[in-house]
Write a structure and sequence with these properties.
This protein has one domain. The chain is built from 4 helices and no strands.
């Protein structure tokens, strides 16, 4: 599987699992479907960006750092714009799994993703 496709797939799967984990917070249970869809989308974007980065640079530490950074920034944007009905913000519970998702995607796409074949004449 190519690196961007692997990142896309893994990011979506891990994002969905991350979103389902929000069910542990009773204050947000009525919005669980929206949270799962949003987390899946956030994981898709993180995985895809990390896959393209890893395809270009093929450096494990840099890909993990890039994935962690993208996951952190996307998670921060979501956490800053989505309080629960009582007005509470959940920065750590949103940003920590999002950052870890990005680092895992960076590791997986660099380690297991297929590099494109060299062009022949």
């Amino acid at each position: 599987m190519s690196k961007p496709v692997l990142g896309l797939t893994l990011g979506a799967l891990l994002g969905m699992i991350d979103g389902i984990g929000a069910y542990a917070y009773p204050a947000v249970r009525e919005a669980i479907v929206v949270i799962v869809i949003g987390s899946t989308g956030k994981g898709l974007l993180t995985g895809l960006a990390t896959g393209f980065f890893a395809r270009k640079y093929n450096n494990l530490p840099l890909a993990m750092l890039f994935g962690l950074t993208v996951g952190f920034l996307l998670s921060w944007a979501v956490a800053a714009s989505s309080p629960d009905p009582q007005g509470n913000y959940y920065y750590i519970p949103i940003m920590l799994p999002g950052s870890i998702l990005g680092a895992i995607c960076g590791f997986a796409v660099t380690r297991f993703g297929r590099t494109p074949a060299a062009a022949t004449r």
